[in-house]
Specification:
seven-stranded mixed β-sheet; 17 helices; HATPase_C_sf; Rossmann fold; histidine kinase; Heat Shock Protein 90; 3 domains; about 60% helix; five-stranded parallel β-sheet; transmembrane helix; 14 strands; alpha/beta; single chain; about 575 residues; transferase
């Protein structure tokens, strides 16, 4: 018995047995129907006691088989136990086959043609029906089919009547055909099961690889976030020190050297920001915030920002107004247009850049054109790839990393804005962006930040940052601007200092976002507002570019700047929020 179980103790046979039990209810229901037909047809032609006994035994066995199926479904056996259940079913099939095979001897009258035909019809029909239900597990089919058919073949062949003998041989051929076909059916079912196993294994591997990829993506996002913060910290400190140093220099040559240092810092900041933008777009961390955008106001703002840079390259920047509104994300759309203009300034080698918007049907087409060297047709798809640059074989970092157009492509795809490039060698480039037109009476206003120097002298600023270098550089810069300061490295030190003497209400809270002891700058802001009972204007400086962080800061009524922060930008931000105190927040 153990050897038999070992023979069928394979995943394939386990699945065959499960399929056998799934198919059995329909076969057993058919058996009951055929039993009723046999009882009805032979009721008047055979001994009723024999017929009732046969029907009773068959009915009891069928009930036992139904119970077997229900128990299998209930207990859902696994492993070697499945084989035992399969052998129990095969044994019940043998018993059922023997009982059905007895009708050849109990009910068939060879002198009654109709009796012979009905028995032959019943036997061949029930064996054919069992072929499809039981061939999935060969012991079950062979255990039923052979005991049903062989008695009929033996009895018919041994008759003197040539017609009946011929019928016996024909049924013998039928038996062999059934056996062969059962093996074919079993093979097809086995192949199907094996294919399913392979698919399940592939699915398992796919899920494993998917989990690995998702974990890698999560790890990458965490790594980039940590790297971004860690890289921005020293860069932020360097910018602050350079800004403070400017106020101490009087020699023109020294100031020129400082300008070059600040330009290098600005390039490094742009490269870091571009790398982080690409990673965030690839990770799907960017959320689209659609609104009605006044395209004229947005383009004017961008041109104002880019006039100086274009002029330094000897390029004139022309804007053609249109008085149109579009449905888009103002920040993302602005980033697209800035990147296109900056790309033209850096790589076109032309003398003119045109920025215009015009309505075409129900769309607004925003066009950025230059009259530079153009892009060959075979290169036009490549320019949207990461780190791909034309006309920069020396990899001059002042011309960027080759990520500007890659970011443009991703942002346009995210916004569902069609982006087209028309260009040819020596004929300049023309980038076209198609936007949904919005017909509204009011123009959306695009807020701009005037980054001119503002006077912040005399403001009392509480500065909280856990990085010593940042605190030192910030203290130096703010003191040079004439601010009065209270500088600490965290909430505990700040509370201790406030307890030693009576400080006036600060004009501005200037806090790093991530602090020690799992605190954030928002915790400092909330505590200080509660302590002074005033909604003190607060500026959070963060190396984390996560959108969720920005939303938290804005929700708490604070402004946010991302590291590294240029000194002029910091001064403008402090000046802008100073004087916005609200009593009893």
């Amino acid at each position: 018995m153990k050897k038999i179980i070992d023979t069928f103790d394979t995943p394939l046979h386990h699945e065959q047995i499960r399929a056998l039990y799934r198919h059995s209810p329909f076969m057993l229901l058919g058996v009951l129907g055929v039993m009723g037909f046999v009882g009805f047809f032979f009721w008047d032609s055979v001994d009723s006691q024999v017929l009732i006994s046969w029907l009773g035994i068959n009915l009891l066995l069928t009930a036992a088989r139904v119970l077997l199926v229900k128990l299998f479904v209930r207990f859902q056996p696994k492993g070697r136990a499945v084989v035992k259940w399969g052998l129990f079913f095969a044994l019940s099939s043998v018993l059922s086959g023997i009982i059905w095979g007895q009708i050849v001897f109990l009910f068939m009258d060879l002198d009654d043609v109709m009796s012979v035909l009905v028995v032959v019809l019943v036997i061949t029909s029930i064996s054919s029906a069992s072929l499809f239900a039981l061939s999935v597990f060969l012991p079950a089919f062979l255990g039923f089919g052979l005991p049903v058919l062989l008695p009929l073949v033996i009895r018919l062949i041994n008759q003197p009547d040539n017609v009946i003998t011929l019928m016996g041989y024909m049924i013998a051929v039928f038996v062999m055909g059934n056996v062969v076909f059962s093996f074919v059916v079993n093979r097809n079912v086995s192949e199907s099961i094996c294919l399913r196993f392979e698919n399940l294994e592939m699915l398992k591997k796919f899920r494993a690889q998917k989990n690995i990829a998702e974990k890698a993506n999560t790890d990458k996002s965490r790594f980039l976030a940590a790297t971004s913060h860690d890289l921005r910290q020293p860069l932020h400190a360097m910018d602050l020190y350079l800004g403070a140093l400017r106020n101490l220099l009087i020699d023109d040559e020294q100031i020129q050297l400082l300008d070059k240092g600040q330009q290098s810092s600005a390039v490094l900041n742009e490269l870091l920001t571009a790398l982080m933008d690409v990673s965030r777009l690839d990770a799907g961390d960017v959320i689209v915030d659609r609104s009605v955008v006044n395209i004229d106001a947005l383009m004017q703002t961008i041109c104002d920002e880019c006039y100086e840079k274009a002029g330094q390259q000897g390029i004139s920047l022309e804007l053609r107004a249109s008085n149109l509104q579009v449905d888009s994300d103002a920040l993302m759309l602005g980033r697209i247009l800035r990147n296109l203009i900056n790309n033209a300034c850096a790589h076109s080698a032309g003398s003119k850049i045109l920025l215009k918007a015009e309505k075409v049907d129900e769309q607004v087409t925003v066009t950025v054109c230059d009259d530079g060297r153009g892009i060959p047709e075979e290169e036009q798809q490549q320019v949207f790839s990461e780190f791909y640059q034309l006309n920069n074989p020396e990899r001059d970092r002042s011309k960027g990393l080759g990520l500007g157009l890659a970011i443009v492509k991703r942002l346009a795809s995210l916004l569902h804005h069609d982006l087209q490039l028309e260009s040819a060698s020596g004929e300049g480039c023309c980038f076209k962006l198609c936007l949904p037109h919005v017909d509204v009476a009011e123009n959306s206003q695009i807020e701009t930040t005037d980054q001119l120097e503002r006077d912040v002298s005399g403001l009392f600023v509480i500065l909280v940052d856990d990085e010593a270098e940042i605190r030192s550089a910030m203290r130096t810069l703010l003191l040079q601007w004439g601010c009065e300061l209270l500088v600490t490295d965290g909430l505990t030190a700040l509370q201790q200092e406030l307890a030693t003497r009576k400080y006036p209400i600060p004009d501005v809270l200037l806090c790093d976002y991530r602090l020690r002891e799992n605190l954030t700058g928002l915790d400092i802001v909330e505590t200080m507002r509660h302590y002074f009972k005033v909604k003190i204007p607060a500026l959070i400086i963060s190396g984390d570019t996560d959108k969720a962080v920005e939303e938290k800061v804005i929700k708490q009524g604070c402004e946010i700047l991302h590291k590294p922060v240029q000194p002029d930008v910091l001064r403008v931000a402090i000046h802008a929020i100073a004087g916005l105190r609200v009593t009893n927040p």
